[in-house]
Design goal:
Blueprint lengths: L1 E2 L6 E2 L9 H11 L9 H14 L3 H4 L12 H27 L4 E6 L7 E7 L6 H10 L1
Antiparallel strand pairs: 1-2, 3-4
């Protein structure tokens, strides 16, 4: 890349090897480009490069060291851990509640209908008793 006297213009050189089929094809199009349709060869190349660049995610095109590296802080990590711990605890409460009601109750959490909130109680439903679960429950109590 080379800058000239005007600070807002830069040059990028393009070298083509006519022994290479791809280079030869590009050279043929550029040398016979219809200027009535396309503003100029320069604008055509910019449009083509821009179209190609937009078809990729930008981070796949840039050098590794030029990408912005993002790290998570200890405080953010601790917040994520706390939230995850709370979600797991609530899920365990739901599972235990379901097991204690022999799979016949429906857990109702405070704050939402799905039971992911804090304990709010169980709503009983009529189902047959499972003798295996009953004997296990008797052994626990």
């Amino acid at each position: 890349m080379r800058k000239i006297a005007k600070g807002n213009i830069v040059y990028h050189n393009l070298r083509m090897n006519l022994d290479n089929e791809q280079h030869r094809r590009v050279h043929l199009v550029l040398s016979k480009l219809n200027i009535e349709i396309h503003k100029s060869v320069n604008q055509f190349l910019i449009d083509a490069a821009d179209f190609y660049i937009r078809s990729f995610q930008e981070d796949r095109l840039l050098k590794e060291n030029e990408k912005e590296t993002k790290y998570i802080s200890r405080q953010e990590l601790e917040t994520v851990r706390r939230e995850l711990r709370e979600e797991v605890k609530n899920e365990i409460i739901v599972l235990l509640g379901t097991a204690l009601t022999k799979g016949t109750g429906r857990f109702q959490g405070i704050g939402d209908e799905q039971g992911s909130g804090t304990y709010g109680g169980f709503e009983e439903e009529e189902k047959e008793d499972n003798p295996v679960v009953e004997s296990l429950a008797d052994g626990w109590g």
